[in-house]
Amino acid sequence: MFTTAEGAGLRVLGAWERLPPGLTHRDVADVAIDPRDDTVYLFVRHDSQVIAFDRDGRYLRHFGRGLFTMAHGITVDGEGCVYCVDNADHTVRKFSPRGELLLTLGTPGTGAPTGIRTDEPVRIHSVERVRYPGPPFNGCTDIAVTADGDMFVTDGYGNCRVHRFSAAGEPLGAWGEVGSGPGQFRLPHAIVLDGAGRLLVADRENDRIQIFDRTGRYLGEWTDLQRPTDVAVAADGRIFVSELWRPKGNRGFVGDDPGRDRPSRLTVLDPSGAVLGRWGASTGAKNAPGNFIAPHGLAIDSRGSLYVAEVTYTFALAPGWVPADHADHQLQRFDPRSETLTEPNPEEPSA
Question: Residue 312: which H helix or E strand, with range?
Answer without folding.
Answer: helix 312-312
